[in-house]
Amino acid sequence: MRRILPSLLALAALAACKKQDQGSGMMSPNATGPIVIGEVGSMTGTEATFGLSSANGIQLAIDEFNAKGGVKGRQLQVKVLDDQGRPEEAATAATRLIASEHVVALLGEVASTRSMFMAPKAQQAKVPMVTPSSTNPAVTEKGDYIFRACFIDPFQGYVAATFAHDNLKLKKVAILKDVRNDYSVGLAKNFVDAFTKTGGQIIAQESYSNGDVDFKAQLTNIKAAAPQALYVPGYYTDVGLIARQAREVGITVPLLGGDGWDSEKLYEIGGDAIVGSYFSNHYSPDDPSPRIQEFVSKYKKAYGGQLPDSLAAQAYDATGMLVDAMKRAKDLTGPSIRDALAATKDYAGVTGNITLDQNRNPLKPAVVLKVAKGGKYDFVTKIYPEGMQPETGSGGDAAAGGTKTGSNTAPAPASGTTPTPTTAPATGATSSASEASNTGQKQGVPSAEHPKK
Ligand code: PHE
After folding, report:
1. How many distinct structural domains can be found in the chain?
2. Is residue 301 part of a domain?
3. How close is the Cα of 278 to the center of ligand 1, in Å?
4. By CB neighbour count within 10 A (0-12 exposed, 13-18 middle, 19+ buried), where does 267 fall?
5. Ligand 1 centroid to 22 CA: how many Å?
6. Whose CA is nearest to atom 12 of ligand 1?
């Protein structure tokens, strides 16, 4: 009896709420007061910099929108929950934000595995979710309420493989992947597929599990295969340790990796062992593009001189893309925001223009960065997907960007036309300009490599 009563009350409350706001997600936002957006991230744990940087980027964008009057006359507010880097916690946090905080939308997670745990909760409640940085294709496949602001791993794997082949002239590469991480497993496969297509060979494949601290056995096997580079598509804490132990067992070749390396902690953990290694990423703060430089200086000003990593930039863009959709949506119910998000076209983000395809994924360029002494990341090259032109103009203000409703100002070439050269020279790089100037590789993803628009 005692147990039945509260649940009956809850049901009655739910029914009343549904009546008031037809067509909304499970629970509807209040019609007055601030609009609450939920955020789920790893604010603590071995990937804490992912959550912390993302939260900074989100807050910066929100502050800008609020300064310009908010959305539909209301201010925006972000409610952040820490998942401690644990997938189950990410799911619980999403549920809590939806059921107790009545958020209109969710931002997060960074890690693909955790986004995949959150996504069914958002989908079921019809609350749109935008992941800033989860790159595994399966994330947005969870349902039509799930969106992302970043490129996906078939492209990222292609970028690393093309760079390994064209720039570094590599033929034999070994792989060390994290089998408990969907991102790592997926990206390893995407790299293998793309590198093999260049005529390269994968001469050893080893695995570990996120959180392991001893990688010597795997690294000893890898050393015996004598690769020219070691591809490690993992997260920064593991990669830092792997780099150290790789040098200890006598592996001297560079490590290659993906966006999961991006943290100021990578060098703190890896030290000189990681210097000279390369990874693909979403953007470089050294890029001279006005929209990037404007963002970098605003971020530094807001956060005590800190340089925004790609998590911060992606989170800033994801927030801008979401708020842009909320402005265009006919109301703030889940289905209306979802429809507006799905129509995102030419949103001028810091990390590139965002136009979502029918799978709710954008096509965006990637950069390759080289870890330098002291932990700085030198810009080496920028690689665009097929048919995409470098972005121009400013747009470093989330509140100034926006999906064009009229005609497209920078139309993409019709499919079937020859892709234009799409490597941006490293004009703004500090120490790698010479290296970048002799890149000269062909760029652009063959359409077979990338899902159709
Ligand atoms: N792309 C990674 C994933 O999907 C997350 C990540 C993005 C990490 C950007 C660092 C920087 O798991």
Report:
1. 2
2. no
3. 16
4. buried
5. 36
6. 111
